[in-house]
User: Fold Beta sliding clamp from Collibacillus ludicampi.
Amino acid sequence: MKIFIQRNALLSAIQHVQKAVTSKTTIPVLSGIKLSVDRNGLRMTATDLEIGIETFVPAYMDDEEIVKVEEEGSIVLPARYFSEIIRKLPYQQIELEVKENYLTTICGGTSEFNLLGLDAEEFPRLPQVMGDRIFSISSDVFKEMIRQTVFATSTEEIRPILTGVVLSLKDGLLRLVATDSHRLAQREETVEAPADLTLSNVIIPGKSLNELGRLLPDDDQLVDIVVANNQILIKMENTQFYSRLIDGQYPDTSRLFPTTFKTSILVNTKELYNAIERASLIARENNNNIVRFMITPEQIKITSTSADVGKVTETFIPKEVKGEELLLAFNAKYIMDALRVFDAEEILVEFTGSMSPFILKIPGETKIMQLVLPIRMN
Amino acid sequence: MKIFIQRNALLSAIQHVQKAVTSKTTIPVLSGIKLSVDRNGLRMTATDLEIGIETFVPAYMDDEEIVKVEEEGSIVLPARYFSEIIRKLPYQQIELEVKENYLTTICGGTSEFNLLGLDAEEFPRLPQVMGDRIFSISSDVFKEMIRQTVFATSTEEIRPILTGVVLSLKDGLLRLVATDSHRLAQREETVEAPADLTLSNVIIPGKSLNELGRLLPDDDQLVDIVVANNQILIKMENTQFYSRLIDGQYPDTSRLFPTTFKTSILVNTKELYNAIERASLIARENNNNIVRFMITPEQIKITSTSADVGKVTETFIPKEVKGEELLLAFNAKYIMDALRVFDAEEILVEFTGSMSPFILKIPGETKIMQLVLPIRMN
Assistant:
């Protein structure tokens, strides 16, 4: 294998696939990036066996030569060294050549590195994800949907299912839901899908989605999503992302949303966030991060007390209060997490009672729904 | 104690003194900031018993009222909570009032915090540093002198003296020197001092100087430096910084500098840094971070080898080479640390031999001198 490649294209490809490299592996080849060159260009692959990322640097882009292929072939290079070397080489073009015993020469300007590589045959093949269960979505929208749900997944491995985000699709409406059983985040969006395509119980690991979120470009290019039995494939331009799915039956969350409300408040999102954040300065000292909410027609008193530190009282004036007076307590972190992913200036919070889940949403919309369970007050 | 104070002035004062607060203390009062109010304004103090910082917020600045004093008094507030609360309060004016049992009310806008304080009488008094051993220096110059030396202090407590920077003054020339016995950094500057003032063996802990470096403003205001037997005091505008000194006799470093040279190279500082940094990508894998330098009249070959990773060769073209050919090895980190604090575009490196210390300096200047000891080659 021998190529000359534009440094920026090489670096960008490394940064793409590197998200799938794990440092915690006992299989040496997995700490590497696989490079394979044919006359069309350079393909790079990395996997931690949970996710896999493959990206392609074409020989030509817009008539410009990106990769000059002198000899086809393949190699696995240690990801950390390879990426740091390319990052620190300030030259426009890099030469890569595999010599005897997988020793690979990386040359740029007056620098020459000889890196010990590994046999590309030892690198695991990424799964073949095929089938007709496929739909398309704008990259930036999918990225946003991930951001608005993945934070609510559980980090506890006791119920592995809750560490994932469940995806479903019906009548062209895509839904992502995550819950750790204390709070729930749901996001819906209409997508381009065959009319008869129905998906349910597709549980994608939260960790995979965090990586995918970093990989998805912030533009409206369409990405294809292919769902197979135990794998999901997201196809971007020149880059493909694979993740295994979580086995099992995700709980039915549709009935958790209350339909009638006793109290509702309309608030400025940022102002409520700031008030709860200040209250949580004191609240987080006790482990549960408990903040109390006392809703009256004129105002909301947000309070928190810690025996060791002191007490805080925030007087918050909502835009509108409807319904009964209410006193309840909740974990400040859950509300702050939920408020953070709303891009709307105003949100509506609907309460059913002191011990029933309450809903945060944008007035007049159901695209984003956040559910939080109050904490029993002593 | 009761005051109304401008939030930005309060926050800035907290951030100043907070550098002296330690979280690792068994003495509760030391995790706090002492506030004392008289009709002139608010004085804040913090100390970890190694360093102490005191700052003063005057009642008036340029005829503007900064602190409105309603009642004099004093209190100690927990530093972490106090600073976070003020940071998160977006109101222009803050009210501070000490009530019964040291309970302190902090009000801003519609927020009210009640923080449990401590008796100010329990707070240690900062030392009285007095005497006529005093000189003045421009704040930004002293900050630069610290930056250019403190990195070379030892972090090993086996020889406590080497964890400090030694200050000396003679004939108006101030000198700071630090060494960990593998490399040495020296910086000199003429300062405003009484003609007959001579200082020697004033050993300031490196940790103290790191904090002081962060505190010194980046402008040319004169700061006064007062040296007492076991304390040093740095007086800035409205802020005073105290540090204890390290006991003992600092080794005489003046004779370490070779006076004759066999080889010298003139190089672009940034280019040499980049070449050594790339070599160190491979070098750091072996614990000693060893890089080899082969100097010939035309070029320098910088190489490093790691059995597990591979090899790197940098071909470096210096601006000028004088004297004999030379082969030597050194710790890449030491050279990179030294090169990083030179603001000059070109530097001169003077070698005496493969096993003698070599000097990095700015051509024609002796203000900054960096000494590095080579490593024996196998």
Notes: Chain B has a mean pLDDT of 95.
